[in-house]
Design a protein that fits this description.
447 residues, mainly alpha, Cytochrome p450, two-stranded antiparallel ribbon, 15 helices, 46% helix, 4% strand, heme, Cyt_P450_CS
């Protein structure tokens, strides 16, 4: 090779490399679009534009409403659309989801490439976003061993005790109910996963999870970041105009990686020093023993971190996997649930007050097939224990001393991969004078 005539990439201006990457990406998109226009028929959906597809038609918020409208417009609960060369199949009913994701799970258990979420922010350790491969199977298996129905029963004592602490905290600072609910989730999941005792809302582990989940919330939305459709953009330097996404990813990556390493290293050190508290990770490290195989240790570290991430919002927002927000249309299907936007818990009961077998439980929230949330049994237990305890202890009411300056509970939610209730005010009033001493007694005595 003639070294005098070889190209020195270090001497090429960055803008030229970026331009070349964009040119190659554009040509690839054009080629892919032409190939796709000649292939087999696809489900109905909005008509795409060349190259960009339906990118300009994707909603910026409450996308489930648009997708539901598309189902009505095109007369199908399975839709197809494209965006910058990427194909999307949208499933809008539980029946279609069961048919495709459960009966044909070997075909439809994969995950698309997510450059922003996985490659830039660093959530590739979360098996909710992993491709359907051997590492996904091993990580999910390690996780499921500790969250199957028989295993989930073991966690009820810690769920009950931490819920009693929530009742005590609500007696003392009821105005902090949102943060206290999140703290409850952190207490439960950090305790059972790592044996770490969380007591404060500003606990570093809980705070790190909240920051990382904000990044996940932003990056998990279809169409938010162009890099998800043109992966070559991930090589754009941070200083380049329009590369704000690179700076955001760098900041979020610190906490995304820390969710794996920080608690893992803390427990690993405790095990080595002989003072580890029993936990999910402790038992997995004991099973590995002196084995230094990096793959096995990565699998158990990632499985524990997935519990940490997934359980950080269990009570408040129930994160199970990426499709949660898209299942809203399934859970608001008027054919299955008449008047779906109305709060009617009695819809699940017969006239005799028993569960109505003709009204399906909203199990779609936990997913389908091989991607169903493996933490669903523990999550259901936590939700039931928390809801029952709150209703036993408090009347949850509109503040009586408020002069209409604060927001009401409207039932509205924010937009994102995880939808949060719009901030509102409420009062937690003890149901009787006997509640207060009982709550403190149960918390102090751990009964």
């Amino acid at each position: 090779m003639d070294t005098h005539n070889a190209i020195s990439y270090s001497s090429v201006p960055p803008w030229a490399l970026v331009g070349l990457a964009l040119l190659i990406s554009t040509l690839a998109l054009v080629y892919g679009w032409r190939i796709r226009t000649k292939r087999l028929p696809v489900p109905p959906g909005p008509k795409p534009w060349p190259i960009i597809g339906n990118a300009l038609q994707l909603p910026k918020e409450k996308e489930w409403l648009t997708y539901q409208d598309w189902s009505h417009e095109y007369g199908s609960d399975v839709l197809y659309f494209t965006s910058w060369g990427r194909s999307h199949v949208l499933i809008n009913s539980a029946q279609a989801a069961a048919e495709l994701l459960e009966k044909r799970s070997t075909l439809y258990s994969g995950r698309p490439r997510m450059p922003m979420l996985n490659e830039l922010i660093g959530f590739e350790w979360d098996f909710a976003f992993m491709p359907y491969d051997d590492e996904w199977k091993d990580t999910r298996k390690a996780f499921t061993q500790h969250f199957r129905p028989t295993a989930a029963v073991k966690y009820r004592p810690i769920e009950t005790q931490k819920t009693r602490e929530l009742l005590r905290d609500l007696l003392e600072t009821p105005e902090d109910f949102v943060e206290l609910m999140r703290l409850l989730s952190g207490k439960i999941i950090m305790g059972l996963t790592y044996g770490i005792d969380v007591q404060k809302t500003d606990d570093p582990y809980v705070s790190a999870a909240q920051r990382a989940l904000r990044g996940m919330n932003e990056a998990g939305n279809v169409g938010t970041y162009l890099v998800d459709f043109i992966p070559a953009l991930k090589y754009v330097p941070e200083w380049f105009p329009g590369a704000r996404f690179r700076r955001e990813a760098r900041e979020w990556r610190v906490d995304a990686e820390g969710m794996v390493s920080a608690p893992f290293n803390a427990v690993k050190s405790a095990v080595e020093n002989g003072n580890a508290v029993p936990s999910m990770l402790h038992s997995m490290l004991e099973a590995v023993g002196e084995d230094t195989d990096s793959y096995r240790r990565r699998v158990i570290a990632n499985a524990a971190a997935a519990a940490y991430e997934g359980g950080s919002e269990t009570v408040g927002h129930l994160i199970c996997n990426i499709e949660d927000r898209l299942k809203r249309a399934m859970l608001h299907d008027p054919v299955v649930y008449p008047d779906p936007d109305r709060f009617m818990p009695e819809r699940f009961l017969t006239d005799k007050g028993e569960l109505d077998p003709d009204v399906p439980e909203p199990a779609a929230a936990f997913g389908f097939g091989r991607r169903v949330c493996p933490g669903m049994y523990m999550a259901s237990d936590s939700l039931w224990i928390t809801a029952a305890s709150l209703l036993w202890a408090f009347r949850i009411e509109k503040p009586k001393d408020r002069k209409n300056e604060g927001p009401d509970c409207t039932g509205e939610y924010t937009f994102g991969l995880v939808s949060y209730p719009v901030p509102f005010e409420c009062a937690f009033n003890p149901r009787s004078d006997n509640v207060i001493p009982l709550v403190y007694s149960a918390t102090e005595d751990n009964i």
